Amino acid sequence: MLRFQGAEHFRQRLVFSTLSGRPIRIDGIRPHAESPGLQEHEASLLRLIEKVTNGCIIEINETGTSLRYKPGFIHGGPGIEHDCGTSRGVGYYLEPLALLALFGRRPLSASLRGVTNGGPDPGVDVFRAVTLPLLRQLAGLEDGLELRIEARGAPPLGGGEVRLRLPCVKALPPVALTDEGMVRRVRGVAHSMRVSPQAANRLVDGARGVMNKLLADVFIFTDHMSGRASGLSPGYGVALVAETTSGRMLCAEACAELGKASQSTAEDVGRAAAAALLEEVSRGGVADSMHQALVLTLCALGPEEINEVRLGPLTPYAVGTLRHLRDFFNVQFSIRPEEETRTIFLSCVGAGVKNLSKKIA
Q1: Greater model confidence, 75 or 261
Q2: Under a CB-based contact definition with an 8 Å cutoff, are residues 338 and 307 in contact?
């Protein structure tokens, strides 16, 4: 049994434990906080894992500061519904769900309700435009991946809903992503709910005001939701994706924080998203900072041959991912920095993880 301290990387520890079949124990989960123990979104993630796996055992002490988790088999399947609550966005649950679904017994079909845009987690537009194509390429999938946005929900009340379909694989192909290419075009989605439809157009104006100085091929769609599809709280924001000549995609997003004293205008939000995208491009690499951990995980789960990627400066979350991949799968990465481009080449011999759930079926 692997032992950990603290609540950091909680999602990752549960997912890696399930994929590796190794039970874990986590102690010292916020023992000195005002509300100690597991928080609402962490308990909700445990309930979601219970729904997509069969035979897992979860033991939590009275104060919620200690957790024991023994993984079961991933069954996937259709008809899974989950209310994510409002403390974290739907994006908090989508990435671990996608990784588990790849190694499920049956293709996954799930409906998630909650906050779709806004807060600290990636929005559903980023998952649909960047994460799904990345999974499609690195997992060797052709079809069966889909994220449909039924309703959008902004903090604090949420009210959004998405439907996710993901196929399963027998094993992952080797990863070789070292060509970052040059940015050839920018696409994006400006969304607005329960505010004037003009807010989405103003977001586009703000973002294009920055991007068009550097690139002519910039196109941002507007998506104004009304009625029941607009959720329970007002909000607006924009997600931008830079596509490179080698087929890589880098993303950034910004959402308005309505109801705060230092509220910014829609044009400011658009400019902030454009500035964040330029920052991601300047960092270099084949994946943006949001997707570094996912790319490294798929490398480590790949076949027992060399898997190599090229990334920009590693985020603290990506560094923690490398440590957990070593602990759970005994996979260590060789790191070779390139001074000229300020990027890093990371290579490893994969753990050769197979889909045991599919074999049992």
Answers
A1: 75
A2: no
